[in-house]
## 1
Amino acid sequence: MSPLDLTTHDFGQFGEPVETFCLITSEDGGELLSLLPGDGYSRVVHLTLPRGTRLGTLIAESVPPDAHVLAVCPGRFLDSPTPQELGARKLAVLPAGSTPLTDEYVRYFLRSAAKTDIAQQAATAEEFFDLVAASDRLTIVDDASGTEAEFDHTVGDCVWNQQAGVLEPGDQQIFPSGKLSVTAAEITTFEPEARLLGLHGDLTLRGWPIVHRHADPADGAEQQRLFEALSPLVSHAVTLHVTAGSIEGVTPQTSGAAPAAAELDKLLTDDPRYRVIWELGFGINTTTEVIPANCGPNEVYGATGGAVNLGLGITPATRFALAFLCPRSSLLTSDGTAVLGARKAVRRGRMQRVSSASCGCH
């Protein structure tokens, strides 16, 4: 398989170019991508991350202090560099170690990132946070099943996160970009007693599950088993009954959902830490499509109007971290305005049809 040919200006999330763009790959992933300097960059430095070496250590010791850095390391779990290690560099990382990614999946997400409209993504994030800030109470609804959950983000502590738009010096971001979220504490930590206390009601899970593991390869077989056990959610929905950010029960909406509901219920019973809805996520990348597999980068999937997703657990505190795509759900403000999701997609579709009729262009 020949390398994918791209140039540095294909990746708009880095903003204005600097002298050096650094590509970091794993020992067996260096042949996936051929990267040439684009407008404004003088050179591309290609480094290999040796086994046993932390990404932050390599960056601090070998990468120029103002460089833009892209890490694509299939099969390697990468811990985030510390702020001291990263310095003023900008870093984007393809999450290619916590779930199994084939070479073709890696190439797909590289192509997808090159096509992503970063300016539009930044505008979407700004609109999202403006609407959220103006509404204390948010509602997640699923029109197909009739479920509804309320989230009052003024109750208790919560942290809003943005993995989208243009990086600033010292920032690090997932790749492809395109996810917003709210967590019960800092996103890189896990506090078992932390809760999204303002979250109550019923949430519908219907979409691709994602099962992340940490660095131990021995967890791979159980990771795959758990993913397959939850895969009926692609076609069959379950309802999560939530009180103060904690899952109190799981109900299958159809008989086809019963195996997935039973697996979820067992998971919650065996390790009650999974009862905590650790993250409400919102995918806004409208360029990517869902890969029909256990694929971490699926979390940025935004359909055409954004997509809700849920996160349970966080590695290595829990053995696995689970995410569930809910593309049929919508996030609404207190006055019913669609912030994101299925209702936003319908609204956008109507707007696009009016625009096409009036000016003849998309």
Note: DSSP finds seven helices and 20 strands in the chain.
## 2
Amino acid sequence: MIIHVANPIYDSVFKYIMEDERIAKTMLSALLKKEVVHVTVRPHEYSNTTRDTLSMFRIDFAATVREREGNEIKDRIVLIELQKTWLNTETLRFRQYLGAQYSNKNNIREAEDKGFAYPMVAVYLLGHRVGNIKEPIVYVNHDVFDYNGNVVEDGNIEPFVESLTHNSIIVQIPLLHGNVNNRLEKVLSVFDQTLVDGDTQQVLKIDEDKFADDNDMLYVLHKLTAAAANSEMRQDMNVEDEYYKAIEDRDTAIMQRDKMLKERDCKMAQMDERLSQQSEQLSQQSEQLSQQSEQLSQQSEQLSQQSEQLRNMAKALFVNGLSVEQISNMTGIDIDIIAKFIG
């Protein structure tokens, strides 16, 4: 049977379902791949109670995890720092939040005189892709090695090490395309945005029969169905839509402005290139004129020297008794010019 449920990618819906301990246990057990027997939402002052330029919904859990150590089964407390965002977000925002958790004295183990902290796992539910990673869910786990690269047994569960390092789980929601190959993908299938029904993102259309054999998932779906029917919840989603519409409008305006600036810069660069070419041409022309001027100067100097030689020759011939007419006939120089030469 096809049912319509509220989209848990909305902060208000996600908070609504994750504050339910059964759903939180279902979700965290699947993410950690371990049995979570108890979950409490930890009070903190970093929740997304006000809007900023980017959505960053945060919620902290203290999860009691049941694990087998040798022949014994032990319960351990693990802190889950869950952060969810729709938009591309600077990693600095994630780091700042984790830094606040590392410095929070409430995260120190009870009755621990050495100040060891609870082990922590950071979970990121992202509404965007991370680089070229094609897997929808990736685990970033840190091992402890010796100098030769051999894994140090029990190194990860040493309180000193756990206090200073943490593992991470990254979920890329856009890559959840209905493929269910394991328990976690089945749980996260309620985030599959290809199931959006109609023009609004607020409602998903889900085939309830696919979860008929899973009481925990049926409980999640019934909770999401109740959220979809809740008028206050729908109003909260409307507010989020208005907020993200404003963000999209702002980003569109920024993109258009950046495009205009890029086109202007391109035109300026082309203009600068043309001016540079014109300047180069003018420089070449100036160089040519300078060379021509130098050539004319040299020619003028040569003519002056030739005129001086002719003057001296005419004077010499006149001194030797030749007449002006004879000198003109001999040299081919006009009589008036010869008269000027000999004064």
Note: Strands lie at 2-6, 35-41, 57-69, 72-85, 120-126, 137-140, 167-172, 203-207.
## 3
Amino acid sequence: MAAATFGLVSGGLIGGPIAKYLLNKYDLRSTEKIELAEGGTVGSTGSKTTSTASSDDANVAKTAKQESEYAESEVSAHSLFTHSAIIAVCMTVGLAVAGWLKGALGIALPSYVGAMFFAVILRNLNDQLHVVKVHTETINLIGDYCLGVFLSMALMTLKLWELIDLAIPMLIVLGAQVVFMIVYCLFAVFPLLGKTYDAVIMCAGMAGHGLGATPNAMANMKAVTEKYGPSTKAFLIVPLCGAFLIDLFALPCIVWFINYFAH
């Protein structure tokens, strides 16, 4: 419990500084933020690419159409109820799918995994068929609220004073993990992900997830993107890897280590 407490706290503290250091060092900006501001296309390095007049007109028209579709930017009781109902449907169907997989195929998955995959499928189908108008502000509000409640409940149950009773070797191990995570994000994760703005956001998420949990990663990325601009790719990859793919890889490794060192 003490180690978990230390990880949650430290994971939430180092994500922002890591992102700020990388952004300042490599002068990176959110390409999505630039596209909205300039109305043009942006390359992976953040520089605006040249395009023909017709392409610019098409982009402007497309942007205007999207803005008109989401003109009702204010969150209302109707939009909150509608999107809450959609989320409830995703959770219900996803839970049923996870239960079916466990019973039919013997594959034990976390309950939220089925809901996550069903939500991804539903969102992509809706973007093509336009069955329901998705209001991004409402979704962000629900996500922020649920994330805040989860972190508050998790931190309220943690006993920070238990860290006082830790032995010196345990403190050394925990401190070494923090140093390793910082070095790993700066010199391994960031270069491997392409040294882009999205890579910076994913590094912030990696710091939170590596020392804490997936909600730590989401909180870190949200804090950075609110200040420096959005990163759709990071918010797609990090939850998928942190909430599902890591279970497929980490669980067998953890079981093997326990069995190996327990003898």
Note: The CA atoms of residues 30 and 230 lie 6 Å apart.
